[in-house]
């Protein structure tokens, strides 16, 4: 609306802004006012939709300057001036001016666009970075703090299909890495935290998105800091370096120290040795069409001095990059992994530091897509996640090497051979991909681990290495025929290619040792979690017991139904009159557990109801039922109420007398037979222990299931896995599978874990 009210009443829409009148004017007021001689030369501009005037107190001597003067937030109706928020606070926060009526200007989207059009390029860039915030990407324990790709993109605050590059910074603690990123990318805004304190203010890895250059900026923890797990944090730096397109090494020293060259040289060696293979696999999984040779980042060494000249100043004929390569060569370090190394120096005579040269060098490298192409943020997250999953875990103190920034121990498997102490040469967590342990050196024999393996000599001479094991019978023999041949000819050694190559008692006399004739002996490494190699796989006795047990079990299962029916009928015939018949007892009278076909039902001698064994395990005399003074089985409820006398009539006692005598005779016979069975069980256990293969865990050492940890009892039987030899319950070992490495060529019982293993057991 018109702010003059000279020719109107202040209700007409403003059309012009007069900078010298400091007001917005309608068409009539502008015409009437500027007819006057003294106002005729005022500079007026026609208003655009949503126009907001400039602040009057901010006006400079040369008129309004876009980008310098602030737009007004309010207009004081008394003073007739437009004020920005700062000027309003300065001039109208005290005294009578606090009570002056004001009109508020509402900034619209159109006005913001108009302001952006009037801004210069530098101001537009500043405005784009006003809302940028950093977030913790990886903590000091190498754990990624974003859950998935979507979370990573959301925290970066960029579009999912946005192509971007990654810029990271390295350097010693206290050299101003976070300060450098803030001034190089975000125009001095404290996106990454800085602090004047002695303690490091950057712990872990932080990230932010620069919308101007379209890069993900990563700030890292400084080297040589007071950290506890320094080895893991150093390994974390190389993971960040591996996903970066451009690396800034920030150093604030008058001369370049050897630490800089050692760090970059060791990082290059570790990158080529451990990371190229994993990055190539990640590149294939993510669909990146980038050759392996271009995966190395470019490096810019940003060197700030105060009292000394920059590198190359005293050698004008030589470029600084050549001098840097000479330093690498003198130290025996070769940074072959990096696509390029550039030097950018600045000498700070008086603060603040000039970062413009670094910014130009960065922009030049970011525009160069010949070595590193921009990619989606999801691909960046996948690469970091793959490296974190591969190279993770604690680094033992005794394996830390201090002669190198990135020793092999940071990235290789930490397992040691139990026999010779050699370390595994494969990468960390290689077991997840099914890759076995390997060592650079050969192993030595240990009697404790018996780390020998047999290989077929005939196959070895044909260029193949086939492992063989002594076993009871050949794979082509049936179980019973194999036992018969074993009794006559002894154990066999069978090759998958050559068949049976050796029988221990093939001849009446003169049988030679297999090592001298058909097999080669090789000493192999013993890794933690593996068994011996030539343990006695002679399972003939156990196979015989298994066969007998199978036959007995089959007969028992087939006869279980008829036997139970006859037993229940006989029991009911000699049971006292007050006992509930077995046919009517379906559940335990106390815990309501359903009885299965092979479960035993017990009667309480006091109340006559049916119970399971655990609910009727107590005993006490029941003379009121005619059982005399001797303790007999009662349920828990009757045991607790043992002082309560039952009202039993004499007639009932007479009726029950005959049936009680019959029941007592039946129990005497049953107890006698039970004692005989127990006497047989003791030597049977000794026979089973003698027949046990050497790799089986003895029965007396198995207290609970190796998988579900259930404790074994009379009702819960023990079963051995034929592959690992551990003890399991039936539910955890009901799978059947051949175990040729243990001499079981036909499907036998194996546990869940062994059944999941790929290939032959």
Task: Characterize the structure shown.
The protein has 761 residues and is α+β, with helices and mostly antiparallel strands. It has five domains: 16-124, no CATH class; 131-394, P-loop containing nucleotide triphosphate hydrolases (Rossmann fold), CATH 3.40.50.300; 452-541, no CATH class; 548-689, Zinc/RING finger domain, C3HC4 (zinc finger) (Herpes Virus-1, 2-Layer Sandwich), CATH 3.30.40.10; 695-756, Herpes Virus-1, CATH 3.30.40. The chain contains 18 helices and 27 strands. A hairpin with a 6-residue loop joins strand 24 (719-720) and strand 25. The protein is flat, with a radius of gyration of 44 Å. Residues 61-67, 290-294, 550-561, 645-658 and 675-682 have low confidence and may be disordered.
């Amino acid at each position: 609306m018109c702010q003059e009210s000279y020719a109107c009443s202040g209700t007409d829409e403003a059309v012009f802004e007069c900078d010298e009148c400091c007001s917005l004017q309608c068409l009539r007021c502008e015409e009437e006012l500027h007819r006057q001689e003294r106002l005729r030369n005022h500079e007026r501009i026609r208003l655009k939709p949503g126009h907001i005037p400039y602040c009057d107190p901010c006006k400079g001597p040369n008129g309004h300057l876009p980008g310098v003067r602030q737009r007004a937030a309010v207009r004081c109706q008394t003073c007739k001036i437009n004020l920005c928020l700062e000027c309003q606070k300065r001039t109208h926060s005290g005294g009578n001016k606090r009570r002056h009526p004001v009109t508020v200007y509402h900034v619209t989207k159109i006005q913001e666009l108009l302001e952006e059009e009037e801004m210069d390029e530098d101001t537009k860039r500043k405005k784009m970075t006003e809302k940028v915030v950093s977030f913790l990407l990886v903590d000091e324990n190498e754990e990624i703090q974003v859950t998935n790709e979507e979370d990573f993109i959301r925290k970066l605050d960029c579009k999912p299909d946005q192509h971007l590059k990654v810029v990271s910074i390295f350097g010693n603690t206290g050299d101003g890495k976070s300060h450098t990123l803030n001034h190089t990318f975000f125009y001095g805004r404290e996106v990454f935290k800085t602090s004047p304190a002695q303690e490091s203010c950057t712990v872990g890895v932080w990230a932010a998105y620069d919308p101007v250059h379209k890069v993900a900026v990563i700030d890292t923890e400084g080297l040589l800091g007071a950290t506890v797990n320094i080895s893991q944090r150093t390994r974390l730096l190389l993971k960040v370096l591996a996903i970066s397109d451009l690396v800034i090494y920030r150093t604030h020293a008058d001369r370049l120290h050897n630490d800089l060259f050692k760090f970059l040289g060791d990082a290059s060696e570790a990158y080529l040795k451990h990371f190229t293979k994993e990055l190539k696999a990640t590149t294939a999984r993510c669909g990146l069409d980038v050759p392996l040779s271009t995966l190395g980042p470019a490096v810019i060494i940003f060197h700030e001095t105060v009292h000394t000249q920059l590198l190359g100043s005293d050698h004008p004929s030589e470029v600084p990059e050549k001098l840097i390569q000479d330093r690498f060569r003198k130290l025996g370090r070769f940074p072959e992994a990096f696509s390029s190394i550039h030097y950018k120096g600045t000498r700070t005579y008086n603060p603040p530091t000039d970062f413009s040269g670094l910014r130009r060098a960065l922009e030049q490298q970011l525009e160069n897509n010949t070595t590193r192409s921009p990619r989606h943020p999801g691909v960046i997250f996948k690469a970091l996640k793959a490296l974190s999953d591969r190279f993770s875990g604690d680094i033992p103190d005794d394996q830390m090497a201090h002669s190198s920034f990135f020793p092999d121990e940071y990235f290789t498997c930490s397992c040691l051979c139990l026999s010779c102490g050699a370390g595994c040469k494969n990468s960390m967590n290689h077991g997840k991909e099914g890759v076995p342990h390997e060592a650079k050196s050969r192993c030595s024999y240990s009697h404790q681990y018996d780390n020998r393996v047999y290989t077929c000599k005939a196959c070895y001479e044909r260029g193949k290495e086939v492992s063989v094991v002594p076993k009871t019978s050949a794979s082509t023999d049936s179980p019973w025929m194999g036992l018969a041949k074993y009794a006559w000819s002894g154990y066999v050694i069978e090759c998958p290619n050559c068949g049976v190559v050796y029988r221990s008692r093939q001849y009446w006399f003169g049988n030679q040792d297999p090592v001298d004739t058909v097999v080669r002996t090789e000493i192999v490494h013993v890794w933690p979690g593996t068994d011996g190699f030539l343990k006695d796989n002679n399972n003939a006795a156990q196979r015989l017991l298994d066969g007998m047990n199978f036959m007995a079990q089959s007969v028992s299962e087939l006869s279980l139904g008829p036997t139970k029916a006859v037993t229940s009928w006989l029991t009911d015939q000699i049971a006292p009159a007050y006992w509930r018949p077995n046919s009517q007892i379906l559940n335990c009278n106390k815990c309501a557990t359903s009885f299965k076909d092979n479960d035993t039902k017990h009667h309480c001698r006091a109340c006559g109801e049916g119970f399971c064994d655990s609910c009727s395990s107590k005993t006490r005399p029941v003379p009121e039922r005619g059982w005399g003074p001797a303790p007999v089985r009662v349920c828990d409820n009757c045991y607790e109420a043992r002082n309560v006398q039952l009202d039993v009539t004499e007639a009932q006692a007479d009726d029950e007398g005959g049936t009680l005598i019959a029941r007592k005779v039946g129990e005497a016979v049953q107890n006698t037979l039970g004692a005989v069975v127990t006497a047989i069980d003791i030597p049977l256990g000794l026979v089973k222990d003698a027949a046990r293969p050497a790799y089986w865990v003895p029965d007396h050492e198995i207290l609970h299931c190796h998988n579900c940890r259930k404790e074994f009892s009379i009702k819960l039987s023990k079963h051995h896995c034929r592959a690992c030899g551990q003890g399991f319950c039936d539910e955890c070992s009901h799978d059947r599978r051949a175990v040729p490495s243990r001499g079981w060529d036909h499907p036998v019982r194996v546990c869940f874990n062994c059944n999941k293993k790929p290939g032959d057991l």
